[in-house]
Design brief:
Radius of gyration of chain B: 19 Å
Order of helices and strands of chain A: EHEHHEHHEHEEEHEEHH
CATH architecture of chain B: Alpha-Beta Barrel
CATH topology of the largest domain in chain A: Rossmann fold
Strand content of chain B: 5-15%
Low-confidence stretches of chain B: none
Helix content of chain A: 25-40%
Number of domains of chain B: 1
Radius of gyration of chain A: 22 Å
Largest sheet of chain A: 4 strands, parallel
Mean pLDDT of chain A: 97
Order of helices and strands of chain B: HEHEHEHEHEHEHEHHHEH
Low-confidence stretches of chain A: none
Number of helices of chain A: 9
Strand content of chain A: 15-25%
CATH architecture of the largest domain in chain A: 3-Layer(aba) Sandwich
CATH topology of chain B: TIM Barrel
Mean pLDDT of chain B: 96
Shape of chain B: globular
Number of helices of chain B: 11
Bound molecules: iron/sulfur cluster
Structural class of chain A: alpha/beta
Largest sheet of chain B: 8 strands, parallel, barrel
Largest interface: A-B, 31 and 36 residues
Oligomer: heterodimer
Chain lengths: 226, 306
Amino acid sequence: MIVGDLKPIEEIEASIRDCPRVLVLGCRGCVTVCNTGGEKEVSVLASQLRIASQARREQREVREETIERQCDFEYIEALLPQISDVDAVVSLACGAGVQHVAEVAAGLQRPIQVVPGVNTTFLGAALEQGVWGERCQGCGNCVLEITGGICPIARCSKSLLNGPCGGSSEGKCEIDPEVDCAWQLIYDRLSVLGKLENMTRVLPTRDWSTSRDGGPRTRVIEELRK
Amino acid sequence: MSTDSRLKRLLEAGEFVVTGECGPPKGANVEKLEKKAQCLIGYVDAVNVTDNQTAIVRMSSIGAAALLVRMGLEPVMQMVCRDRNRIAMQSDIFGASALGICNMLCLSGDHQKFGNHAAAKNVYDVDSIQLIDIVRRMRDEGKVECGDEIDGVPRMFIGAAANPFADPFAFRVARLGKKINAGVDFVQTQCIYNMDKFKAWMRQVVDRGLDQKVHILAGVTPLKSLGMARYMAKNVSGIELPDALIKRMKDAPKESRAREGIQICIEQIQQLRSIPGVHGIHLMAIEWEHKVPEIIKDAGLYPRPA
Ligand code: SF4
Ligand code: SF4
């Protein structure tokens, strides 16, 4: 899933300073699962914004909505009446959701600010209750079959293809004693799988053009296009 | 294909070589660089020039190495994968070669988190092993990474680092094997304080015949003080400093601890010389370049061969 952190309230406040009518918009996708931008978080943020404006004796109306997915025009458009009626939308979706809502809002008669309430951080997985870890960087050319199911691009601090570097110590990465060394994990996994030869051959330079380095990526399935 | 490297020539002649190290200044202070380098003339066969080590911005390794060439020293230009993509790397290798630099060391590089620009973006387009492979193909096949022909082939003698003390220990020799397969000519190790562990590593190296395929230079760093010994033991990942050495520094009278550090270093050099497969030492006297002559003389490694 896509994981994110809620922005500090002061930052959100600053981005909607002169907006008397605000919609806090949640998403039932990834951000609900990682407890960042679902219905519950929408309600908490909306109350905080109300309290903050009361404390400043400002008139402000803060509405709350949560839709199925902000990364689909269909669901956003169903909410058009509520969006067209406010001065600002604080989106608690990932960066993709915020941009989609902003695009819809840009087509409306009045200028409506769409601002992010979340710092989108990574593609990850739940490690335990309340803990998520980065697992993938969407490089567009997956090597997990070689590395025993552990991603060197996302999980090695230097994205090394031929690790571990000289900083690997007691299973931890040189950057932080709390961070696992991905290449120690890969070594241990490949040992268990009897596939250590995957680590002894030199993996050649990569073609990063499948990644963000090749420019923004688009996926098209012709049969599905109307 | 041959290079004009003296380091290569001496290693191939079976000499026990000495390489030193010179960290460029945090600015364009040429005088400071030359002063440091001056201490090394005649006492080392080649000098590593670090590439923004610990991710602190300094004069470029290529610029500083070119200045050393001007002084008559033979540099080993270090190049890390942190700051350049394959385009910049290959371009700098052409430039370095044009400036008379004929040895280089391919490194991953310390993460920028340790330096003075922790907010920087890192590159890691290629890793150190892939960089070795790129430089070898440039030299031996006359081609850049994409396969295009080179106009004026850079004749680099290719080095890499090896850290026998990093984990997983069991994989460390295999990793050296990968560097050899990629085309490395010589390796310099992390500084060695745990002699037993280094010997164990070297035994594996020799058992696999890897010492026949690559020149191994054992890294040594003299301890300047008890504080430095304690700091290295605790804070530098990838360095193992046995308690016995710390005790030895502690037991020495305060005013003679610096000499004790040098004495330890000399003894280490003597031990390293007797280990099969070790073809030289890499002396990293960090901010202590003026002590290099003393160490090299007392270790019986002076004068250096021509
Ligand atoms: S190799 Fe690429 S696609 Fe596969 S998990 Fe890693 S970043 Fe994601
Ligand atoms: S210590 Fe491990 S995870 Fe960290 S940069 Fe080195 S190889 Fe990658």
